[in-house]
Amino acid sequence: MTITNWDAPIEPDLAHPDSIIRLTSTVLRFRCPEMSPKSAQSLSFTKSFYTVGSNPDTYKVLRKATKARQFLQSSLTTNNTTVPHKTIVGAAKEYLPLIHQILLTCKVQPECARLDEQLFFEWTSGIEENKRFFQSQAIMYEMVMTIATEALATAGVGCDECTSGNFAAASREFRKTAGILSFLAIHQLPQWISGSNSNHSNNILKNKLPIEATISNCEAFSLLFLAIAQQMAVATVLIKPGTPNYSLLSKLSLGIAEQIDAFLHTTNTHQQQQQQQQHHTSKEEFLYLKKRVDESFFTLLQFQSTLQKSLSAYFYARHTWDTQKQYGLAIAILNDALTYLNVQSTPTSRGIPSLLDNTSSSSPFSSKQKSSPLANLSKDITNAKHHMMLVLRTWEKDNSRVYFDKVPLTLPIEGRLPDGSGLRMMKIQPYQLMDVDPLLLILPEGAEPNTMEQELEDEELARALQDQLNCDNQAED
Predict the structure, then answer these.
(1) Would you state the pLDDT for residue 81?
(2) Pairing mode, if any, of strands 370-371 and 34-35?
(3) pLDDT at site 191
(4) What are the phi and psi torsion angles at 87 (to 5°)?
(5) Residue 213 vs residues 65, 210, 452: alpha-carbon distances, Å
(6) Which residues pair with 35 in a beta bridge?
(7) Cα–Cα separations (whole angstroms), residue 464 to 118, 162, 357
(8) Longest dimension (CA), the chain
(9) Contacts by residues 284-291 (CB-CB < 8 Å, ≥ 24 positions apart)
(10) Which helix (H) or strand (E) holds 124?
(11) Cα dist. 18→22, 162, 165, 307 in Å?
(12) Residue 461: helix, strand or coil by DSSP?
């Protein structure tokens, strides 16, 4: 016969709550770039290459490229209907080898690359806060933005998987995104930017392009999406039944925080370097990202970095208590973890950003405050703090009654993972373009050869020179 002691105290449930899983998997969803509907309707590769594209096979590809571009444009322009991100990825993949083939054709047959109608490509950024169209006649620009669209649509698939709780699948999608952006930064964009011999022209050209069409930002965002992929890996471990490997989770969480901090450091360092280079462009360069990207993006990054440091300390405390049996040290580490979840008293102090946006009103006497992007996370933040405090009180009670282990007044070196010791487990998924063959362009008999690429390059450099002269005139005034 089994005797049940109904009067025995019920042990508190110290398993990590779902709120920690939701917090660690929180990401900001970017929209996809969009094409100008007006230019998309009027742009036709068959009309532009009408004279030199008379070869039947060439005409077929040009016609297919025009239709593929129109389908991609319609997929990106939602008009109050939601197009699945997987559809956008598919549309970009269908169009990309075709525009790649046209670009390659113009490179290998520049003397025949004559246009009957000029090509104007207009795109908005998917990362910048405000929707505005950036225009270029460069076919490379069209190709770069198509690749960037595939990248951000792939990230959208990752966000969809995350929302559904499929964290392992989400991690794979974010690794793909990191790989595509890395490809842009290392392989594709340098081919375009290196066409200019002037650093100042490069700076001007960069400021006339979407953020995702610049080398430095593609490098930085590739690093960031690897951190997001690792967030999904942590969530994958946490949703599994049983006690997780707290030591591994501690290193993974610290690795996420270090990668986010590296992203912020990379962008800030780039801004500071640009500020020191050119007097005429320093103001614009210094605020390059901060002025063009939604402020909530940086608030979320600051929060996620701080949260991951708190979780790293929390997981390390659980490992120290359960495995190392250093009960006093575990209590000190958990106390330290809780300090990260306090609201910051100053912009440089430890803690998470405020749940209220104190900068929402331009008047210092206004009492109106709008919710910060963290407002929707407030319940989960509170729940995570309550859980950590419950674990802390339980440990303190057990230590005072059973273990009698001394609790350090200040956290010793062995109570925290060394800086830079975070585990960066995620690697980019390599990305490459499909191999394509150039098309046959036929120059009519008696027509003079013309180099379209040289014309476009000269046009861009002329605009850059004019902008430089305008800057110089403003400085003199």
Answers:
(1) 61
(2) unpaired
(3) 85
(4) -65, -40
(5) 21, 5, 22
(6) 123
(7) 20, 43, 39
(8) 107
(9) 284/207, 285/203, 285/207, 288/207, 289/211, 289/217
(10) strand 121-124
(11) 6, 14, 12, 15
(12) helix
d(CA 438, CA 453): 16
Contacts of 239 (CB under 8 A, 6+ apart): 21, 165, 167
What are residue 396's phi and psi, to 5 degrees? -60, -40
The stretch 105-122 carries a mean pLDDT of: 94
CB 442 within 8 A of CB 112: yes
Kindly report, residue by residue over 379-436, the tens digit of the pLDDT. Answer: 999 999 999 999 999 999 999 999 999 999 999 999 999 988 899 999 999 999 999 9
Residue bearing tokens 């993974």 = 252
**Cα first-last separation, the chain:** 98
Q: Quick one: average pLDDT of 47-59?
A: 96
Query: Residue 474 corresponds to which tokens in the numbers above?
Result: 């403003």
Tokens representing 231 are: 């967030």
In total, the chain counts a number of residues equal to 477
Q: How is residue 91 written in tokens?
A: 């549309």
Q: How far is residue 84's CA from residue 155's CA, in Å, rounded to a whole number?
A: 12
Beta pairing partners, 135: 122
Strand partners, 371: 356
Q: Is 128 helix (H, G, I), strand (E, B) or coil?
A: strand
In angstroms, what CA-CA distances link 420 with 81, 256, 402, 423, 424?
45, 11, 36, 9, 10
- The H-or-E segment that residue 157 falls in is helix 139-163
